[in-house]
Amino acid sequence: MLSRLPSAALRGLDAEPVDVEVDLSRGLPCWSMVGLADASVREAKERVRSALLNSNFDFPLAHITVNLSPADQRKEGSYFDLPVAMGLLLASGQIVPDQDRQAAMPMLLGELALDGRLNPVTGILPLVLFAQQQGFTSVVVPQENAKEAALVEGLDILPAASLLSVAQHITAYASLTPYVLETLDDADLMEKHLDLADVRGQEQAKRALEIAAAGGHNVLMSGSPGVGKSMLAARLPGILPPLTMSQRLEVARIYSIANNQTRSPLSNQPPFRSPHHTSSDVALIGGGSRPKPGEISLAHTGVLFLDELPEFKRPALEVLRQPLETGEVHIARATETLTFPARFSLIAAFNPCPCGFLGHPIKACRCSDMQVRRYRERMSGPLLDRFDLRIHVPPVEQEKLTQLPAGESSKDVAERVLAARTIQYQRQGEGVSNAILSVRMLERLCKLDAEGQKLLNMAMTRFALSARAYHRILKVARTIADLAAETSISSAHIAEALQYRGDDEF
């Protein structure tokens, strides 16, 4: 007998349709699985066999052929266990589906334990999104995956604990209860972050972070050890605007594919990633024999913080240049090419020299000119040109450090950032910040008066700025105007944007 169940195969962040066909025929008992399945899928034989026996079913003594169609499409993942096991039960006649359930058969996803339990699987969110697009009304998932799967609206998420409970649901002997996602307040969705009020002094750096958060810009900080560069960057998530629902779903899909459990799928806070400087280029952009998202994709819609920037390997830094411009990364392999989103704000920090005290008002630098030059050459000019704001973070005097009152709280700054970002979304479209404005939109939204244009032209000539730098200065000026709730860009906004270039120091 033959049974056929619909399923799907992951391809990057998306899924493609797959039919799980199980055929039982006469002949010597054996198992054949065809359809370009990888090792994790082929190993389903042993898991399915033990799960059936331990669930009080019989393992058919027949010539078993399992076909994953289409045959020329690669399949990987243990979530095929459940549809294969259910196909065996249907083909062998051990269960007879209820007519209503058969007419609206749910998509089945889950890995089987040897005792018949359903174990959680990775990539559940893209698979459920695919089920929604294909018109399914329900999806059976392991209980541990139900919360993540419930982010997709418009279909019933049926959490199951075991193979037996799924069989009972299909035969209408018992029914699985749809998972109900709890309604959470914004306070429940907010992650706890460090407060910007903890930073004493550093008003220029805090202003630069506010502008970066409001417009989604890239920031490069230079300063001696201990002046507060990492402290400032760690407090950036506390002033970022919350994610929209579509952004939240996109980020959750990336983390689902990457099997990264460090972030709740319900969180509406932009991700913040801070990889160590020993990270490879593959770790940053993604890849591997089976391409997975890297740090820049995990930071999508959020922030990627690179501390000690010159200590990163030069090839690892150079691979960031294209994603910073396009907002996506293309991973090409011999068998396939995948695209992962990577629209993030890059925040980087570094010391001015190897010892860290070049330009320090008290401590003398021990580095030679050659050492300083070699240290700076680890950061290429094209990469530095992609930072919208480049600032020097000076040391804070001890008296000011102990006597200065607490600064403005992250909550107050976040309100201004959200107001500015709201202006941008209303003007440019949902999710389009100033940092990603196209040249055409930039020309339309960033028109300068005569004084502002003259000031910018002088800066272009004096500092020999590139066309990219010209456009980035306009974007920063547009964000400064939005923070001030002004519709036009004045010469004062251009002047402030220019002071964050720092070309003499970088």
Structure description:
The protein is an alpha/beta fold and 506 residues long. A 5-stranded parallel β-sheet has the order 11-14-17-10-18. A hairpin with a 4-residue loop joins β12 and β13 (292-293). The longest helix has 19 residues, at 410-428. It starts with a strand and ends in a 7-residue tail after the last helix.
What structural keywords apply?
506 residues; alpha/beta; Rossmann fold; 5-stranded parallel sheet; 4-stranded mixed sheet; 23 helices; 18 strands
Q: What's the structural blueprint in terms of helices and strands?
A:
Layout: E1 2-11, E2 14-25, E3 30-34, H1 39-42, H2 44-54, E4 63-69, H3 81-91, H4 99-103, E5 107-108, E6 111-112, E7 118-119, H5 124-133, E8 138-142, H6 146-149, E9 156-160, H7 163-170, H8 186-189, H9 203-215, E10 219-222, H10 229-234, H11 245-257, E11 272-273, H12 281-285, E12 286-287, E13 292-293, H13 295-298, E14 303-306, H14 314-318, H15 321-326, E15 328-332, E16 337-341, E17 345-350, H16 369-377, H17 381-384, E18 389-392, H18 398-403, H19 410-428, H20 439-445, H21 450-463, H22 467-483, H23 491-499
Parallel strand pairs: 3-4, 5-8, 8-9, 10-17, 10-18, 11-14, 14-17
Antiparallel strand pairs: 1-2, 2-4, 6-7, 12-13, 15-16
How many H/I helical runs?
A: 23
Strand content: 15-25%
Q: Into which percent range does the helicity of residues fall?
A: 25-40%
- Class by SSE composition: alpha/beta
Main CATH class of the largest domain: Alpha Beta
- Spatial arrangement of strands, main beta sheet: 11-14-17-10-18
What is the number of beta strands? 18
Largest sheet: 5 strands, parallel
For the termini, the CA-CA separation is: 72 Å
